[in-house]
């Protein structure tokens, strides 16, 4: 009984002390006539939500937000690697298959340890990143617990920024993604209004001290609000004679990592199985399409609507409809041919594809599909399965803990499109992740990897997280 009271007590104490902490955390007494810049990364905030808040009068100091077109899969690890120009991530998610070791790595216990979750990854490059265990706690007592942790995260970031003298400070808040997943649009919007007030406060403080603060913000991918169903991919693979397991043992083996509850899955198997695995996945209820790489310059796409092939020649791409036009690009191609963007062989540049598909259901599909198999990740998938809107697959434990109200991962716009906006510059209608590094001059930092966060409010941290995980396992056992 005492253990069951730990979690509610934790959040009650946090709620009681949040106002006091905010009052005590006063800005330092400085008189500094310098220009500083704060770049704030908000994980998983959709473009549509920021655009809606802007129309309602929030973020008034900022220029118009741009759509930030994420990677495919539209997940944090590949997206942040692309944006930060960082070394490739070990996996698409934190629970991943390592081909050299032929095993699944990255347990939830690893996520609770900063030396495994943060050290050596893109997360270490932030001047502020919350402690590793907090993200796991966001899935408990949701959405109130998630919102509480988000507020704590924001206050700690504000404190870290105030204590820093870095001309360019880059901070990351991950609880926005959890809040979108577990709380939906209204809870996320409420928190973002607090973000707006905090940025106003920091800008006012800089002005009062004789300085100037410029603020830029972006998210790594979108989140689509919906009621979600689970895809029964394991059952479909089993019926086709495959065995989903933790290692690739023989010609029947398929490794299907499950971490977050997301709109995409990455599968690993022996090379000769790729086509068959993709075919089996493609006809499963909830699957939009499955793709695999048949050779260095060719991706095969299979769906219930038909088949297509994406070809690459240097930095030029071609979409070849084999049957049914599954990505619905026929009219786009006709327009590109008519305006001269596409040559007689059907190839067009990445920039031309981006411009032509900006308002399409699938934004920038040829480049993003190839990048999913060739960039950002060390162990790249044999087959990638993109789910229809309203469907997901992921961790059985998180399925037990959470009712998902939004997710990301697939190739479609809602799950793909994050945002970017700035108080100092117009960004246009849309930007690609790799362009943000230069636009926000993220490499021009004098301080990197500050990691100012402490052990978390009320100091309950890892012990509480371990209790939560053990309770979840106990309740999920048959």
Q: Could you explain the architecture of this structure?
A:
With 478 residues, this protein is α/β, with parallel strands linked by helices. It has two domains: 2-21 and 37-86 and 121-225 and 411-476, Alkaline Phosphatase, subunit A, CATH 3.40.720; 229-404, no CATH class. It contains 17 helices and 22 strands. Helix 1 (2-24) runs parallel beside helix 7 and helix 7 runs parallel beside helix 8. The protein is globular, with a radius of gyration of 23 Å. The model is unreliable at 1-11 and 447-478 (pLDDT under 50).
How would you summarize what this structure contains?
With about 475 residues, this protein is an alpha/beta fold. It folds into two domains: about 1-20 and about 35-85 and about 120-225 and about 410-475, 3-Layer(aba) Sandwich (Alkaline Phosphatase, subunit A); about 230-405, no CATH class.
**Low-confidence parts:** 1-11, 447-478
Based on helices, strands and strand pairing, what is the structural class? alpha/beta
Radius of gyration: 23 Å
Mean pLDDT reading:
87
Count of helical stretches: 17
How is the largest sheet built, in terms of strand order? 5-6-1-7-21-2-22
CATH topology assignment of the largest domain: Alkaline Phosphatase, subunit A
Largest beta-sheet characterization: 7 strands, mixed
* CATH classification, class level of the largest domain: Alpha Beta
The termini sit apart by 22 Å
The proportion of residues in beta strands is 15-25%
Strand segment tally: 22
**CATH architectural name of the largest domain:** 3-Layer(aba) Sandwich
Shape: globular
- Work out the helicity level: 25-40%
């Amino acid at each position: 009984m005492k253990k069951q009271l730990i979690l509610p007590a934790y959040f009650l104490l946090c709620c009681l002390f949040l106002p006091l902490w905010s009052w005590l955390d006063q800005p330092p007494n400085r008189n500094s006539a310098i220009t500083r810049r704060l770049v704030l990364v908000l994980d998983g905030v959709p473009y549509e939500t920021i655009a809606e808040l802007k129309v309602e009068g929030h973020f008034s100091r900022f220029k118009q937000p741009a759509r930030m077109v994420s990677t495919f899969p539209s997940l944090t690890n590949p997206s942040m690697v692309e944006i930060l120009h960082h070394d490739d991530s070990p996996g698409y998610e934190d629970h991943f298959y390592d081909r050299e070791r032929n095993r699944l790595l990255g347990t939830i216990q690893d996520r609770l340890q900063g030396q495994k979750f943060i050290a050596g990854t893109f997360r270490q490059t932030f001047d502020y990143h919350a402690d590793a265990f907090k993200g796991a706690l966001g899935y408990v007592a949701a959405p109130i617990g998630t919102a509480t942790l988000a507020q704590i995260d924001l206050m700690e970031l504000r404190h870290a920024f105030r204590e820093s003298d870095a001309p360019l400070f880059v901070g990351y808040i991950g609880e926005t993604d959890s809040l979108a997943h577990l709380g939906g649009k209204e809870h996320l919007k409420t928190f973002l209004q607090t973000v707006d007030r905090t940025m106003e406060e920091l800008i006012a403080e800089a002005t009062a001290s004789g300085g100037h603060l410029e603020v830029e913000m972006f998210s790594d991918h979108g989140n689509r609000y919906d009621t979600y169903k689970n895809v029964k991919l394991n059952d479909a693979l089993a019926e086709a004679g495959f065995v989903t397991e933790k290692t690739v043992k023989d010609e029947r083996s398929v490794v299907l990592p499950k971490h977050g509850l997301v709109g995409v899955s990455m599968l690993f198997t022996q090379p000769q199985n790729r086509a068959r695995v993709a075919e089996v996945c493609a006809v499963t209820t909830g699957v939009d399409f499955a793709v695999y790489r048949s050779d260095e310059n060719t991706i095969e796409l299979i769906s219930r609507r038909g088949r297509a092939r994406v070809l690459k020649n240097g930095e030029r791409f071609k979409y070849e409809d084999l049957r049914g036009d599954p990505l619905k690009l026929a009219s786009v191609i006709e327009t590109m041919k008519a305006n001269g963007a596409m040559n007689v062989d059907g190839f067009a540049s990445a920039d031309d594809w981006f411009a032509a598909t900006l308002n399409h259901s699938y934004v920038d599909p040829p480049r993003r599909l190839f990048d999913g198999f060739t960039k950002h990740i060390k162990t790249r998938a044999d087959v990638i399965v993109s789910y229809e809107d309203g469907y997901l697959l992921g961790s059985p434990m998180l399925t037990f803990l959470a009712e998902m109200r939004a997710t990301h991962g697939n190739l479609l716009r809602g799950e793909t499109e994050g945002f970017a906006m700035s108080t100092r510059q117009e960004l246009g209608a849309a930007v690609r992740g790799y362009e943000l590094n230069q636009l926000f001059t993220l490499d021009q930092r004098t301080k990197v990897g500050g990691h100012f966060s402490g052990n978390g409010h009320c100091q309950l941290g890892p012990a509480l997280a371990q209790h939560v995980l053990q309770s979840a396992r106990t309740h999920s056992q048959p």
